[in-house]
Specification:
It is a single chain. By secondary structure, the protein is an alpha/beta fold. Helix content is 39%, strand content 17%. The strands form 2 sheets. It has a 4-stranded parallel sheet with strand order 1-2-5-6, with helices on one face. A two-stranded antiparallel ribbon has the order 3-4.
Length: 163
């Protein structure tokens, strides 16, 4: 099985991998958070941005929901940006605050894909961390954060190769 996570999805696939590691052939992180043991998503954002997320939930989300980030921030192409914005919904703040307890099981294959055509990206830190790591395959895509929308064919080829 190949698990692919995008953005927040890295938190999810890391937790899943912890539970079913023997069934996984490859983990693919697509411009994604790669959490370490005992950390949550907010640990990977600058302190000011983490506080903005919490303030947004308090002011606009009944204390527990985060307003979706507009597609323009992620450099989604102009043709698809309105559609992406329409598909996004508020997300629970707790999902950004939940710390993962993981042992980091060994995976046969780990792939990190960074989209390097948008700023400020919290994912460049992971590209820097895994770019030279021999235990990871590292791939760069030019363009915005939503690679699956902007470059679906190229991403499909990459995902098939990850299998």
């Amino acid at each position: 099985m190949v698990l692919c996570g995008h953005s927040y999805g890295g938190m999810v696939i890391t937790g899943v991998a912890e539970r079913i590691a023997p069934k996984i052939r490859s983990l693919v992180y697509l411009d994604d958070f790669v959490p370490e043991n005992g950390k949550c998503l907010l640990n990977y954002l600058p302190a000011q941005q983490s506080q903005q997320v919490r303030d947004d939930a308090a002011q606009n989300g009944d204390g527990y929901k985060i307003t979706p980030i507009p597609a323009a921030v992620f450099a989604v192409n102009a043709h698809d940006a309105a559609w992406v914005d329409a598909m996004c919904v508020k997300q629970p703040l707790a999902s950004f605050e939940q710390k993962l307890e993981i042992s980091g099981p060994k995976m046969p294959k780990r792939v990190y894909i960074v989209a390097d055509g948008w700023e400020p990206s919290p994912f460049q830190q992971f590209g820097a961390r895994f770019g030279a790591d021999r235990d990871w395959q590292f791939i760069r895509f030019g363009g915005g954060h939503d690679v699956m929308i902007d470059q679906p064919e190229a991403l499909a080829v990459t995902l098939i190769a990850a299998a």
